[in-house]
Design a protein that fits this description.
Elements (H helix, E strand, L loop, with lengths): L1 H10 L1 H71 L3 H8 L5 H44 L13 H8 L3 H4 L17 H16 L15 H8 L4 H17 L2 H23 L25 H9 L2 H4 L6 H7 L2 H14 L3 H4 L1
Helix pairs in contact: 2-4, 3-4, 4-9, 4-10, 4-11, 4-14, 5-9, 8-9, 10-13
């Protein structure tokens, strides 16, 4: 029996060798595939965790943006009221001065101007802070990333403070626009909306400067002054300011700011419409929403309405005006793109 088995093995020796080699090869290949599959799983898990961490950081950063906007609205309102002070004029009118008509003319101009400025400034504040805090947020993410090759932070605390202080330009020089607008007529709601559109066209079609001029100082010496010298941190601050300037000059920024302005002025007109509604007791067909354009108010009543809109526009308590700007989908998408750009390692961007 053993002799027969040995003869069978000798006759089929090559087949046994080939089969053994094949089985061994399949085994080794299986082990290799198992190892590679395990590596892929680990890499995908690591990437998933990193992406989840990045997403969490981004969402946290957006909440910070929203809270920062709300916290800065009182300062924005104060800056506008200081430069366009209508309260002193209303106080003068109560004393029945001889130049009453002249004061009314000034009050008209200031009331409309500061409301328009409030809309522009609030929209600019929302979008500018989205740019600044997402640039900072992107760099902070890289600074805290696992496996970061350098210990030098991209955005140390001192740089963050110097960089974010540039917002003072918007609260100062950047706020002085449309102060020479003169409004001499009495309007219905439709005429009032048309006048606001005319003011917007005049402001936004200006060939002297773009709207981004009001957000950051564009003079290199001013940027250097803001950065307070030539230390390493100051150079990094100037770098951040220049990167911000590039973002503000981009078509995407222009588009998003335009979206915010359209939404802002639309909300302003919605707020004003509430004051142009017929009395509730009036059951005539004129109560229909489309007829609001036919309702007129005396100028003496329109001016206080316009003058008081700043309290709604620049309210630190979340109002429909501010909420619609903060929650706008295009603003969110723009913020995500800024964060994506500055939270991606430079070697991956090349």
């Amino acid at each position: 029996m053993f002799s027969s088995a040995w003869n069978f093995i000798k006759r089929h020796k090559k087949k046994f060798i080939f089969t053994g080699a094949l089985i061994g090869g399949v085994y080794l290949l299986g082990k290799y595939a198992q190892k590679k599959f395990s590596e892929i799983q680990e890499r995908e898990a690591t990437e998933y965790i990193a992406q989840a961490r990045r997403q969490f950081h981004f969402e946290s950063n957006q909440r910070t943006c929203n809270m920062t906007v709300l916290s800065m609205l009182p300062a924005l309102k104060e800056a506008i009221v200081t430069q366009l002070n209508s309260e002193s004029l209303t106080t003068l009118l109560k004393s029945k001065p001889a130049n009453k008509l002249e004061i009314w003319e000034d009050l008209k101009i200031i009331s409309f101007t500061r409301t328009v400025v409030a809309v522009y400034s609030t929209c600019m504040l929302v979008v500018l802070l989205r740019v600044q805090l997402n640039i900072i947020g992107g760099y902070l993410y890289l600074d805290n990333s696992v496996g970061k090759s350098t210990t030098t932070p991209l955005a140390p605390p001192d740089v963050q403070q110097q960089y974010l202080s540039s917002i003072q330009h918007l609260l100062g020089d950047g706020i002085a626009l449309t102060q020479n607008v003169s409004l001499k007529e009495t309007w219905s709601l439709l005429e009032l909306e048309q006048q606001l559109n005319w003011i917007r066209a005049e402001v936004e079609a200006s060939s002297r400067r773009s709207l981004s001029w009001y957000l950051l100082a564009d003079d290199e010496n001013v940027l250097a002054d803001q950065a307070c010298g030539l230390t390493e941190n100051d150079i990094m601050t100037i770098k951040l300011l220049n990167e911000t300037r590039d973002m503000l000059d981009s078509p995407d920024f222009t588009t998003v700011l335009k979206v915010c302005l359209n939404r802002g002025f639309s909300r302003l007109c919605d707020n004003l419409a509430e004051f142009f509604r017929p009395p509730p007791s009036d059951s005539a067909p004129s109560c229909a929403p489309d007829s609001l354009s036919a309702v007129s108010l005396p100028l003496a009543k329109i001016i206080p309405i316009i003058n008081g809109q700043i309290n709604t526009i620049c309210s630190e308590t979340p109002s429909h005006f501010v909420q619609e700007l903060l929650m706008n989908d295009q603003v969110k998408e723009f913020a995500a793109n800024v964060y994506e750009t500055f939270s991606t390692p430079q070697e991956l961007q090349k």
